[in-house]
Amino acid sequence: MTVGTTPVAPAAPAPAEHPPPRRQRGRSTRSRYPLWFLLPGGGLLVLLFVVPTATSFYFSLTRWTLFDSTFIGLENYVTFFQDPQLFGSFVHTLVYAVITSVGKVVAGLALAILLNGRIIARGYLRAVVFFPVLVSAVGVGITFKVLFDPFDGLINRALGVVGIDGPGWLTNPDLALASVAMVDIWKGVGVSTLIFMAGLVAIPRDYYESAHIDGATDWQLFRFITLPLVGPATMTVVILNVISGLRSFELIWTMTGGGPGFTSDVLASVIYKKYQAGLYGLSTAGNVVMFVVVAAITIPLYRWFRRREVAQ
Amino acid sequence: MRSHSHIVRGLVAIAVSTIVFLVPFAFIVLTASKTSAEASQFEFSWPGDFVLLRNIAEVFKVRDFVIVRAFINSTTLTVSSVVVMVVLAAMMGYVVQRRTGLFTNAARMLVLAALIVPSAVVPTIWVLQALGLYKQMLGMILIEVTGGLPFCVLLCSAFVATIPRELDEAAALDGAGPLRVFFRVILPLLKPVVVTMVVVQSVAVFNDFTGPLYFLPGDENATVQATLFNFQSQTLSQWNLLFADILLITVPPLVLYVFFNRQIVEGMVNGAVKG
Amino acid sequence: MKSSNAPRRLVALIGSMAAVMCSAACSVGSLGTGDQAAGDTTITYLVFNEPSTVKAANALIAAFEKDNPQIKVKLDTMPTGSDGDNIVKTRLSTGEMSDVFSYNSGSLLQAIRPDEYLVSLSDQSWVKDLDKSYLPAVSTAKGLYGAPTGGSTPGGVVYNKAVYAKLGLKIPRTWDQFRANNLLIKKSGIAIPVEQTFGDAWTAQLVILADFANIAAVAPQWAADYTANKARNVDQPALSSWQHLRQLHDDGLLNKDFASATYDKGVQAIATGKAAHYPMLAGVIDAVRQNHPQYLKDIGMFAMPTATGTESHLTLFLPSGRYIPKTSTGAKLDAAKKFVAFTQTTQGCDLLVQSGSYGPFMNRLCKVPADAPAAIKELQTYVAAGNTGPALESVSPIKGPDLPQLAVEVGSGIRTADSGAKLYDQNVKQQAQQLGLPGW
């Protein structure tokens, strides 16, 4: 780990400082990082995640009314893939995940750097950026639905003042999804900023100081110190946002309900609508499909990040 | 010159952030202060009749002060599950990052899978029933812990990676056992990320609506998010009371944040990983 | 470590949190449970959490407890709509249902397997007071399971009487008359002819759903054929409802903010006379009473004008039922039956009316009050003439989940009536197959 090799606590010479002969056998990696540390958390995950999930995999192969179930093989999957709205919702899901992830990573990192630097009213700014995280998605959804109103909404009224005829943010089929994505970024950027800020703190100041003495520009400091060393935080932010983007539901549901029509329907909202309609087996099959989609995107991403981390 | 540009940058940041982040809040406050008829117009205007206090009193009075019970329940749920979640996640994240092998890889995959897969409601209820924990606060706490664990483990393992291995090696050489190393050396160093987890997860648990809806039914178990539905229905919405309620239930997370905001700053000033 | 007291502070913090946690956990148990004398029976009653429903339920409970001091009733609530639907199914199937609960009648009731999960109430004395049209909605071949929770909700067109008076318009019976009225109103410019509020997608369905009594009047077999996969939305007479929805848009009769307007805006527009018509449920009347009482006298309502006959029929959405699950036994079951019976007495009816329910009622002991709003009395003429019919969802188990979205698309001119009806047929098929209905 590069981060470990700071000028303050140099890592490379460590073996020399603590020569191997003094290392006790009992104090090897094995016992220093005991596996039972994984037990309480892992046990809970097995009990309340693996067991229910495995059970529901089975039910995705059935026609399930909650009261009883009939095994029907892969029929639910066939039905799910034949759904006329499915393809559109796939595309919407990907678009939404990309917009929100990129938005939160870029804006989060920018804000974190800004708020970690010397700036006036830092406490105020930090608080303000984090405020939206504190409100529930339902509250945010209701509020923005009103602010986005094409005629009476604050946003279009403000645009009207400067002579712009604002669009129907949530009612225009071409705009609805992007508008919700913007609100998602607004609501969620505080978390990304927080993670990035904590990540930035982990970068030893001495790096910047010595680079500064060598005459590095702000951009060079960012490009060659901040960006590479904030790596673990970036991974966390990217993975979390990609997953939540692909799975996102609450905000879309409260703001557009997938509409107008089906123009902002994502996988999660299609699945939820099946669930609402009492099509439990079908909706469970949809969940399995979504799991596969999210896994197919996230796991390679995660591997890639980890390889880079190890490579550094 | 530099400090001058700092101030300009700061002023721009203040102006932009105020508009982008605070105006929606102003809207919530204004609507919460209006009468029922005026609120349903959805205008961003000063209330003709400023009745915020009356609306809040109304919100409290609804259904025999159910909101008070809801606040107690939500606080219990949030505090307990976040404490357990953070400690368990830190332990898992630490070992997962430090060790490689069959079990840690399996644990890593398990965590990632749990992050990805949406929860299955009815089978989970079956498990809770089998354990005798359905409709129990303890059961709900375990559900929330399980739900937040993956996020926290991911965060922790990422940040354990920034802690030089030499630190725990040195501590171990001084004769400290693994528990002691973890609680005395590692956990304190994780402070910034612990604060992050506490804030983010507290907010998530406190704002969770569907979880308690399914796993903790019953009015004596009401949580704050459920109270929002006292003012919202398909045919008749009392927007002023709804927004007053949103305002009310946003206060605890806000207080939490204001409290921890200092901890975040402090953690940063101390430079937790300077060793 | 630079700051040696950091860990200590962290431990202190966690400690204090644990203290908070314990004190909260310890105190919460005593809150809200109340004191309970020995020998008392406590039952729980689960209702949807609409403010008016909760208010009515509390009034019922208070009166019932006064009459039966040895029984305590505890109110439980669940969200309206599909969340509540899932709660009911989840709690029934896991054996955790409240002792008495309110839930939909008709097709949705069949989906919760009344024979397996509910206590039959066929032998109760109040059954003889129920309207015959309601019985099939709460019964199976093996018994009757529910008592009506209130009056039916009529669906049709809410109109502004002031606008009608100003233009000397007559209440339309056929769709052509309705269209002529609309074009006149448009020409006069004094009001928006038809208010639509697609900001709440569910409101878009009314033009279609409230037309069903008209269709059933000319094709009584339609619902049965539909359930058996023999009748479709793409064919007449059902297609005409979809065509009407599209025509309202194409004639340029809608408010310009139809895509974003919400139900509340619709209520306001129709109350103030900004709009002349609003295809909606009679719930509008109560909303006007609450939010714009000064305009209540201007509100009227008529049945959806018909394109299939000469006389329009009022579509009635039947009231929910009160049910008792099989998990209620012994003293609790007796108390639950007592409570349900109480709701079907004259006193129960009075409480219902006091809390704002106007009928038409399903229990003959309940009478529409003399001081009901004019719009309610207007609707009584359809009841008196026998020109009413149940909504499709009361007589057929299939309702596709995508109807609101498809109705929005057709009503906004994004999709043609034919295409909307066709996609809806596909959507319905998915559900019918899932339900395992014969013929699909």
From TrEMBL, chain B:
Annotated compartments: Cell membrane
Short name of any one Pfam family annotated for the protein: BPD_transp_1
Domain of life: Bacteria
Limits of the ABC transmembrane type-1 domain: 71-260
Keyword Iron part of the UniProt annotation: no
Coiled-coil residues: none
Ribonucleoprotein found in the keyword field: no
Bilayer-crossing regions: 7-30, 77-97, 109-131, 137-160, 181-206, 239-260
Entry keywords, A to Z: Cell membrane, Membrane, Transmembrane, Transmembrane helix, Transport
Membrane topology: Multi-pass membrane protein
PANTHER family linked: ABC TRANSPORTER PERMEASE PROTEIN MG189-RELATED-RELATED, SN-GLYCEROL-3-PHOSPHATE TRANSPORT SYSTEM PERMEASE PROTEIN UGPE
Similarity remark: Belongs to the binding-protein-dependent transport system permease family.
Protein name as catalogued: Carbohydrate ABC transporter permease
Source organism (scientific name): Kribbella sancticallisti
Lineage of the species this protein comes from: Bacteria, Bacillati, Actinomycetota, Actinomycetes, Propionibacteriales
UniProtKB/TrEMBL annotation, chain C:
UniProt entry tagged with the keyword Ribonucleoprotein: no
Name of a matching Pfam family: SBP_bac_1
Signal peptide positions (record): 1-24
Keyword Ubl conjugation: no
Keywords of the record: Cell membrane, Lipoprotein, Membrane, Palmitate, Signal
SUPFAM superfamilies, sorted: Periplasmic binding protein-like II
InterPro entries the record matches: Bact_solute-bd_prot1, SBP
Top-level taxon of the source organism: Bacteria
Protein name in UniProt: Extracellular solute-binding protein
Annotated organism of origin: Kribbella sancticallisti
Organismal lineage: Bacteria, Bacillati, Actinomycetota, Actinomycetes, Propionibacteriales
